[in-house]
Amino acid sequence: MSKRALVAIADGTEEIEAVTVIDVLRRAAVDVSVASCQLTRELQIKASRGVKLVADSHIDECVDYSFDLIVLPGGMPGAEHLRDCPTLTSMLTCQQKAERWIAAICAAPAVVLSAHDLITDAKATCHPAFFQQLKAKQVVTDMPVVVDEDHFLITSQGPGTAMAFALRLVEILMGEKKASQVGQPMVLLN
């Protein structure tokens, strides 16, 4: 059975984090939907460094679908736009209640998940500039990727950890063998 993932984007999203996750999950044959969270309903967004990304659909078109994983890239003000999207907030709340995976990187764990009290009982990490805003039971500052299996949560620190984060998402969804099959041809150095 194919796994399904949603990657939410908005103006100001960190492009390395978004594109790396989308690319790596698709290499693993995960069915990835990229959803714009723009209030204007535009599919094209301007990422944090000016790169233009085009979503597959608007987030409002995704509410009736079930996803094995919802991913939140960071970047500012992208994370704030994700935080302020009522449809995404509702989907994240439902995802958590259904005990399905949520993943967030960089500013998103603090700016999005903490703002909506979605990680208060979990262990998590985020970009070091946001450690003080991260309202998690255990804030992990010395690991690039943190997996809290009890809370179906995967968090990571920033653009430099995006590849490790993305491969960990593959491992969680598809297993260690699949993550290795995806990672080896990309010539990752250990």
From TrEMBL:
Matches recorded under InterPro entries: Class_I_gatase-like (IPR029062), DJ-1 (IPR006287), DJ-1/PfpI (IPR002818), Prot/Nucl_acid_deglycase (IPR050325)
* Occurrences of domain DJ-1/PfpI (ranges): 3-171
Any Pfam family: DJ-1_PfpI
Q: Which residues form a coiled coil?
A: none
SUPFAM superfamilies from the xrefs?
Class I glutamine amidotransferase-like
**This protein is called what?**
DJ-1/PfpI family protein
State the species of origin: Zooshikella harenae
